[in-house]
Description:
- The chain is of the alpha+beta class.
- The chain contains 13 helices and 12 strands.
- Helix 2 (about 15-45) runs antiparallel to helix 3 (about 50-95) and helix 3 (about 50-95) packs parallel to helix 4.
- Residues about 430-440 have low confidence and may be disordered.
Amino acid sequence: MKWLRRLFGMLWHSVIGKLWVTIMVLVAVVLLILGAFLLQYIDVSFDENAHDIKVLFIITAIIGFLLSTFFAFFLSSKIQQPLLQLKDAAVSISEGNYSTRVHIDSSDEIGQLAQTFNNMTEQLEKLIHELHHESNHLSSILRSIGDAVITFDAKGEIILTNPDGHLLTQQWQNIEEEWSTGEVVNYPMVPAPIRDSYVLVLNHGKEITDKIHVQSYVWSVVLTPLMSASKMRGVVAVIRDVTEEHKVDKIRRDFVANISHEIRTPLQMLQGYSEALLDDIVVSPTDRQELVQVIHDESLRMGRLVNDFLDVARMEAGHMNMKHQLVDVNMLLSRVARKFTVFSKERDVELVSQFSEAVLELQHADEDRLEQVVTNLIDNAFRHTDAGKRVIIRSSGVVLNHESFIQLQVKDEGQGIPSEDIPYIFERFYKADKARKRENSSGTGLGLAIVKNIIDQHHGNIAVDSMVGHGTTFTILLPVKIHETIQ
């Protein structure tokens, strides 16, 4: 009985089975109705041969039923085969094989259905191909964009990003604790630095442009709502690293402020003292001579400022002329040290020279420019070292990575530089900073910037080691031979 139920269930859950069962039931009903009427008629009309006629009728009914069953199976198989092909083709397409086609040679409704199915599959394959092409095109565009592009849905989940955006989200996930306030966070998948802006765009549906500071970086952020049929689907964030632009803008503002500060003081003194002379306020020849001397000194100071600034401008523009030749470093240092002998006695600051006994020569160097470097560093050391202390000049040869270098050191026992200010000491007008400013300083604030540019032109390196209250040491490494082509 179980196998009969199973067979009936299989037939009933199939269109062909339902069709076959329906035909069989109709045939059986027709035969039963005919039999009910004909058997009674046979008993009345045929007394002697009634039994034989009934047997013949039953045999005929059985044969008719079997023939009907055969033709029903034949018809069912003709209908079932193309339907099974359509079913297998649909399964193949659902698995991603969009090139599947149904081959049915028939002009009836099933053949028309197969043709329509093939047309639909062809259009679907074409549409999927175009979608893949557009997707690859969009991916290529996103990968080529230098900015970080991140697309969020309305729940704050990331649905699309380019490589830069992926790296940025991973970096910002590591600083989540720094931005956390301890409260329950909505949209936790949105990076903390842009989470508030994301909520504003999501609630108001308006584009937001902002600049955010994350650790030591500055980012420009543009968040645009992603709409579909007047419904908010998400937010697109375009994030750009503008740290360098921000730094350049800050340097430009500082430069304008610093150069204005540097020029204003001598100009005011020149104007004030010249007006005093013009108005004959000063009568004594001694006082008049003193005013003239101040005017002369301030004009020299402005001249040095302009010359130093022009030097920096030429160096940064790459227009500095270098006269490369063989340079004896110890001889150069001795010559510079002699220039500061008198100044050392006047300031009561001992100048100590500790030169290497070996011959130190640079194959390609500009002697005048290197003398300018050493002079600036020693002058800087004297101006920031109190009486009774020392300024030390050292030279030595070193080998790094199988290459020969000459190391120069200028060390003072002055006030030192705070660690937070060391990264900025080679910027122009650094002397205006509180850590290095002295009221009696006559420097222009461009000396270290010039030193850095000259060392770079020689393919060298300069480093600073300083501790507040213990002095400062400038260390220069210059390659003995320069392998690059000298301009």
